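Forum: Protein Structure Q&A
Topic: Joint prediction for protein chains with partners

I've read a bunch of threads here and the consensus seems to be that you should model interacting components together rather than docking separate models afterwards. I'd like to see that in practice. Below is the full input, 931 residues plus whatever partners are listed. Could one of the regulars post the assembled result?
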Amino acid sequence: MQERREKTESQINTDLLSAMLDNHLWFWIVLAGLGLVILAGAAAAGYMFDRGLGVTGLNRPVFWGFFITNFVFWVGISHAGVMLSAILRLAQAEWRRPATRAAEVLTIFSLATALIFPLLHTGRPWRVFYWVGLPILPYDLSRGIFQNVRSALLWDPSAIFTYLTSSTLFVFIALVPDLAVARDRTTGWRRALYATLALGFRGNARQWRLQAIAGILLSALILPVFVSVHSIVSWDFAAAVSVEGWHQTIFAPYFVIGAVHSGVSGVVTAMILMAWLFKWQDYIRPEHFDALGRLLIVVATAWFYFFFIEFSFGLFSQEPSEIALRQTQVFGQPWGWMYLTFIMASYFIPVPLWMFRRVRRSLVLMFWTTILVNIGMWLERFLIIVPSLMRKQGLTFVWGDYNPSPIEVLLVAASFAVVLGGVLLFSKIFPLIPIYDAKEGKYIEAEIQVGRRTVPAVIREE
Amino acid sequence: METTSSESNGHNGHHRHMPEIGEYTAQVANEEIRAWFGAPGSWHGKALFVAGALLVAGIVAFVIRASSDGFDERGPWAYYAAGFAFLLTTVGSAPLVSVALRMSKAHWRRGLSRLSELFAISSIFMLIVYIPLPFMLPVVDDRPSLWINWHGHAPHIYDSMLLVTTVLCGLAILLIGARPDFAALKHETKGIRRWYYSIIGGNWKGTKKEWQRLRAAQGVLGGLYFMMLIFTQLIVSSDYALALIPGWKDSIYPAFYSLTGLQGALAVTLIAMFWVRRTGLQRYISLDQFWGLAKLLLATSLLWFYFWWSGFFVFWYGRSVAEVGVLEYMIKGAYLAPFLGAIAFSFFVPCFFFLIWNPIRKSIRGPAIAATIVMLGIMFSRVREYVAAFSIPKGMVGSTHIEGILGTNTPDAIDILLLLGILGGSAFFYLVALRIFPAVNIWEQREFTLLRKVRPYFKRYAVVLGKPD
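Posted by a regular:
Agreed with the consensus. Here's the joint model:
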C-alpha cells in the first residue's frame, strides 16, 4: 500500500539536495574512519607487493582464496543496479523510484572494487599488461604471446569493463535532470561542474522525451551485459574440469541469481542507511521495503532452487570423489559450521522472517536480515572456491589447507570501506535519490473510492 | 455500478480520447460472460469433434503399439514419452500463469486467469498418458539418480505421487477460484449443471470472511502448486531423460526443462486466449492481456537460449569422453534435426521475427502466432531429449559414456498418431472444461470494475488503477 506524503516540488528539491549542500559532522567522521581502513588496506597491499604473495595464506593447491572470493562477491553486489533500475523500470514498478540511484551507484563502486582484486591476486599488478597486451604496450605481442580468446579469464575483464561503462552511462543519463536542478541552486565550482554535466538541460518537452527514450533503451541494452558478467565469472570456475564441484552446467544462472539475491539485499541495507543518516523517511518508506522484501522472497527462493540443484547434481552421478567433496563441505571442519552459517544466513533465517509484513516494514529487521544475507553469500563463494581447490584432482600432488593471513583480511575490510566511502562521497556531490523521479511519482499517484474505503492508486496514461 | 460514461460527460472542451478499457460496468461483464458461457457457438461442437477424432486415433495407435511391441522395450515408446513430456511443459504447467500473475498482483491477469487454470482439466489427461511410463523406467541401482541409495522402485512411486499431487493442486486452484461464479450460476441452471454447481459453489454467500478465506486459499495453493510443479519437473526430467543417457550429467537441464514449462504455459494460454477471443469476449481478453503475456514470452524465449548456451558451453569446454559423446548424439549427430528445430522455433524465430518488434508484440495476432511457433519448438525439444533418452539400448544405461555411434529413432505412422492423439486428447479435455466453467472469471471482472476508473488527466484521459494491498 502506498503511504503518501504530500510534498511540494520545492520541498522535494530542498530535502533531496540536503545531503549535497548541507554539512553534517557525522559525514566527515565516518568518511575519516573509512579512509583509515582504506589506508590500512593500501599499506597491506604495498607490503604484499614488496614481499610477494608468500605473505598471504595462498599455497599449493589453494591458489584462489580471499581475493577471488571477494572479487566474486563484489561482482555479485553489482547486479543490484540493473535488477532494481532497469528491470523494474521496464516493468513500471512504482516502488522502484527511491531505490534506483542507490542501486546504480552501488553497482559502479562495487564493480570498480571487484576489479582491484584480480590485480591484487596477481601479486605483481603491473604485469597485467602481460595479460591484456594493449596495442599501445605491445610487450608480449612482440614476443609472440597472444591471449587465449577462448578463455573465460579473458572475457571476464571485458564483460566487467563493458558493464562498468554501461552502468556509468546509465547513472549519468538518469542524473542529467537532477544535475540541472543542482546547477540552478548552487554557486562557484559546484555550479560550473553541474552546468557542464547537465549538458544544457532545461526541461523542455523534447529533452524529457529524449531522456526517457535513452533510459528505456539503456535499460533494455544493459540487460544482456548484466547477465553476461556473472555468467562469465561463473565460467572461470565451470570451465575448470579438474576441480571437483566446479564443472557444472548450472553455474551461470546459479551465479547470476545469487548475485541478484546478494545485490538487492545490499541495496536494501544501503537504503536503510540513507533513510537513517539523511533523514529521508518521507521518501524511503516502509511500503518500499515491503515491496523489496517480497521481491527478495522470490529471488531468494529462486536462488535456493538453483543451489539445491547444484548440490544434488554433485551426487547425481554418485562418483566417490564428488560425494567426498560434498561431505567435506558439509561435515568437514572448519567448513561444516561455515556451511551451516551460510545456508541459515542466506535463506533459512531471512526468508521465513520476510514472510511477515511487519518484518518487511521494519527498517531495523530488514537492515539486519539483509546484512545476514550478504554474510551468507560471501561464505557461499568462499565455500565454492576453497574446499574444491583443496581436493583438486589430476596433476596435484599435494592436498593442502588454507588459512587467510591478516594481509588478506585487511584488504577485504578495505574493499568494504572503498565501496561505502565511494557511495558516501557520491552523496556529497550528486543526489542519491532521483529528484525528477520523486516528482514524477507524485504526479501519477492517485486515490479512488471503493465503497467506504479510499484505495491508493496509480495513473496509467492510455 | 457507474463507471466511465458519467465521468466522461463533464469534460472541459478538450478533444480527449476516451480509452476503451473503461467502458463497461460490472453488470455488463456479468451478462456478457454468462451469455458466452451459455452459448459459445457452433465452433465448439466442431472443435470438439476434431479433437475427439484425434484422441480416438491416438487410442487406436496406442493399442496397436502395445499389442505389437509390448512394454518391455523403451524404444518403441520414445515418441509417446516425448508427448507426455510435451504435455507436462505446456498444458501441465499452464495454471502457473494464473498463479504467478495473481501473486504479482497484475491487474491485467483477470481476463486470462480462468483460461490458464482450465488447463488443470487437461492435466487429468496428462496423468492418463503417464500411466504406462513408470513401468518402462529402470530401477535406480542401474543408473545415475537423484534418489541416492533409495533402492527398489523409488522413482516410480515418488515420481507418480508428485505428478498426481501437482495435478490435484492445479484442480484445487481452479475449483476454489470458481466457487463464487458457481454459486451465482447455480440459480440459473438446471439438471446436472445445477447439481455440480451446487456442490462446488456450496453455500457461498460472499461474506467478508469467505472472501478472505478464498484469497488465503488461493495464495497457499498457488505457492504449493508452484513448488510441486517445479519439483515434479525436476524429477521427471532427471529420471526420464538425464538418467537414461550415459554421460549426460547436466545440472542445468531440470531448470531448462522448467523454463520451457513456463514458456509453454505462456504459449498455450496465448493460443487459448486467441481462439476464445475470436468467438467473443473481446472486451475481457483484450490487447492488454496479449501484450502482457507477449512480453513474458519474449523474456522466456531469450532465457531459453541463455540456459541452453550455459549447458552447451560447459560441455563443449569440458570435452571429456562423456561430454563429447552427449554432444555428438544430441546436437551434432542423430538428433541434429530436432535440435535445429528446437533452437529455431523456441528461440530464434519467435524472438527475432515476432516478439522483439513492438508493433507485433502489442497486437493480438503476433503473440498468438509466436506462441504457436514456440509450441512447435517445445515439441522439437522434447523429441530431442526424450526420444534420444528412450532410444538408448538397455545395456548402455548406467554407463559412464555413450559407446559407438547411435542412430536416429525416426517416427513411424503409429508414433505420429500417438503424438496427434496426445495433442487431440488434451484439447478435447480443455474444450469440455470450457462448457463447465465460464471462460472468464466473472467475479474477478466485477472486482476489476471497482478498482479501475477513467479520469481526465491534463488534456487526455487516463486509467486509474486501485492498488488496495
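The beta strands of chain B are 452-457, 460-466.
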